[in-house]
């Protein structure tokens, strides 16, 4: 569905940011992208959405090509972005306006707006905050409204670019739960994150290192086989606990469940 | 230096940001500040720095009233270092050397004093002198953050306020930055006020923890008491228990025994839990 074919990118000639990146993401996948600061993660996200264009190679989404200006509006509509700072994304004065703003831009018929607004706010559990203003909302609630505004556009892919990193623990849990829920409903989720705990619940992990794709596969196998410290990463707590206890079942994000089930097996 | 707030309140136009805060910050400690979004954490540290001129109540620094202007409004406290979120956004000079020299230049320090200060600070933030001629904007995210923090450390603050200093850094850069700051704090006998949402970091580095909620100071705890005995408070405020503590509680529950730990840091909990896990079959006979 989404294909990078031998993509190269640089801002300044001679200083490559991405080199020879190829991968395909299928509809409905949950993919985490990890890597050190400056490894090219956010550049990949911008290339997916056509905010940047490859210097060599191509980025295609369902047959649409980001280098074709006529395709860009379609691509933007089908791929939504959630950024790091919830303060940066709120541009109107109420929750309702925030969700309707995007719909007006893509000229959704007025009679359809109401149902899209309600569906989107229900999906993020913010239906009771229609008239709330940004300063009355917590960081987590603002992120949820940003997600609703994207959902109302009925996208197929949502990219979360470190979307939980500025939230308090509760806000972070809320946003992660919504990501999982949207994935269950069939959306394609691409999550860029520095939180290794969050990576374990993805289906697939892409590791970027100095502009190259160094790993593409299951998150668990990554933590078991790759020297994570060499990539400025860290083992998730669940994997550290697993190593400590020499548990025989493979680690998952639910380390408590494993400990409970293994407690009586010795 | 001792910083003390007596019955201090801050009112914004439509709400109370801080209500009747009584608190003493003593020297030589790593003090973490936690609480949900909007709890008053940022307002609290801004008051200490003197960035909020109009407050109700008293603010004492070493038993002297904090500096005020002729109208009675609080003035900025210069000896306090303040590192905002994303401090690298405030980098503006063309070389790291100039960036680090800026504050001391303003204070009229000599070239010699500045050079000595740079030589002292660079290793403390894990940077080498080869970085000095570089443009700050060419550096990696972790390096930029360290340069920005080093620029604040150059003034040798007795109290350093850090507002989520690791946000946006990769995991390895987060760990190394916090370790460097801990060493700096201990070597200089300075105090760090560390605003954070990462409970795992709070438990690992803190000597004391301040918990804020809805503009009130809910408590001033040692980390062990807070994380081992105040679970209900943390849950009520939507703050997570650090994962090592969750592990300890789970193994205590399963084994039916209270486990003695040296502290609630990860390594101490791992050391205490491991033998109990491996003898679990025998425990249950």
Please provide a written account of the structure:
- The complex is a heterodimer of chains A (266) and B (285).
- Chain A has 266 residues and is of the alpha/beta class.
- Chain A has 11 helices and 10 strands.
- In chain A, helix 4 runs parallel beside helix 6 and helix 6 runs parallel beside helix 7.
- The model of chain A has no long low-confidence stretch (mean pLDDT 91).
- With 285 residues, chain B is an alpha/beta fold.
- Chain B is built from 11 helices and 10 strands.
- Chains A and B meet through helix 7, helix 10 and helix 11 of A and helix 5, helix 9 and helix 10 of B.
The CATH class name of the largest domain in chain A reads: Alpha Beta
Q: Which fold name corresponds to the CATH topology of the largest domain in chain B?
A: Rossmann fold
| Number of structural domains of chain B | 2
Most strands sheet of chain A: 6 strands, mixed
The helix tally of chain B amounts to 11
Q: What Rg of chain B is obtained from the alpha carbons, in whole angstroms?
A: 21 Å
CATH third-tier fold name of the largest domain in chain A: Rossmann fold
Largest interface: A-B, 37 and 40 residues
The percentage helix of chain A is: 25-40%
Beta percentage of chain B is 15-25%
* Level-1 CATH class name of the largest domain in chain B: Alpha Beta
Low-confidence stretches of chain B: none
Mean of the pLDDT scores of chain A?
Answer: 91
Biggest sheet details of chain B: 6 strands, mixed
Corresponding CATH superfamily of the largest domain in chain A: P-loop containing nucleotide triphosphate hydrolases
Strand content of chain A: 15-25%
């Amino acid at each position: 569905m989404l294909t990078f074919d031998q993509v190269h990118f640089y801002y300044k000639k001679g200083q490559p940011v991405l080199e020879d990146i190829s991968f395909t993401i299928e509809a409905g996948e949950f993919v985490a992208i990890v890597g050190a600061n400056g490894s090219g993660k956010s550049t990949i996200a911008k290339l997916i959405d056509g905010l940047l264009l490859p210097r060599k190679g191509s980025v295609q989404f369902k047959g649409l090509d980001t280098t074709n200006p006529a395709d860009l509006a379609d691509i933007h509509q089908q791929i939504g972005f959630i950024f790091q700072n919830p303060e940066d994304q709120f541009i109107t004065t109420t929750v309702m306006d925030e969700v309707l703003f995007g719909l007006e831009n893509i000229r959704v018929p007025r009679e359809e707006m109401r149902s899209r607004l309600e569906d989107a706010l229900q999906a993020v559990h913010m239906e009771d905050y229609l008239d709330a203003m940004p300063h009355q909302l917590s960081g987590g609630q603002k992120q949820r409204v940003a997600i609703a505004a994207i959902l109302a556009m009925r996208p197929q892919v949502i990219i979360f670019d470190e979307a939980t990193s500025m939230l308090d623990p509760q806000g972070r849990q809320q946003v992660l739960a919504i990501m999982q829920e949207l994935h269950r409903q069939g959306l394609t989720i691409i999550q860029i994150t520095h939180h290794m705990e969050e990576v374990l619940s993805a289906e697939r992990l892409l590791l970027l290192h100095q502009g190259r794709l160094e790993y593409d596969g299951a998150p668990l196998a990554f933590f078991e086989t790759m020297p994570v410290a060499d990539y400025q990463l860290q083992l998730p707590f669940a994997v550290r606990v697993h190593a400590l206890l020499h548990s025989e079942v493979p680690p998952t994000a639910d380390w408590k469940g494993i400990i409970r089930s293994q407690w009586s097996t010795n | 230096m001792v910083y003390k707030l007596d019955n201090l309140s801050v009112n914004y136009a439509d709400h109370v940001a801080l209500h009747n805060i009584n608190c003493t910050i003593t020297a030589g400690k790593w003090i973490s500040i936690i609480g949900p979004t909007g709890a008053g954490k940022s307002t609290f540290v801004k008051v200490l720095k003197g960035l909020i001129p109009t407050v109700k109540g008293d603010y004492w620094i070493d038993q002297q009233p904090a500096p005020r202007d002729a109208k009675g409004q609080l003035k900025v406290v210069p000896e306090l270092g303040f590192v905002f979120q994303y401090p690298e956004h405030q980098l503006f000079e063309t070389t790291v050397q100039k960036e680090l020299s800026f504050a001391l230049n303003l204070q009229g320090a000599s070239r010699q004093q500045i050079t000595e200060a740079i030589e002292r600070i660079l290793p403390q933030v894990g940077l080498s002198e080869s970085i000095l001629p570089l443009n700050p904007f060419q550096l990696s995210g972790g390096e930029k953050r360290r340069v920005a923090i080093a620029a604040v450390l150059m003034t040798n603050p007795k109290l350093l306020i850090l507002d989520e200093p690791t946000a946006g850094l990769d995991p390895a850069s987060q760990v190394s930055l916090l370790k460097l700051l801990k060493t700096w704090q201990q070597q200089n006998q300075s105090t760090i006020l560390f605003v954070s949402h990462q409970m795992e970091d709070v438990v690992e580095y803190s000597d004391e923890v301040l918990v804020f909620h809805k503009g009130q100071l809910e408590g001033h705890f040692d980390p062990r008491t807070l994380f081992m005995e105040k679970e209900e408070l943390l849950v009520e405020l939507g703050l997570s228990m650090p994962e090592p503590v969750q592990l300890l509680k789970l193994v205590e529950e399963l084994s039916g025994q209270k486990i003695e730990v040296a502290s609630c840091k990860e390594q101490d909990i791992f050391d205490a839990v491991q033998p109990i896990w491996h003898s679990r079959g025998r425990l249950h006979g």
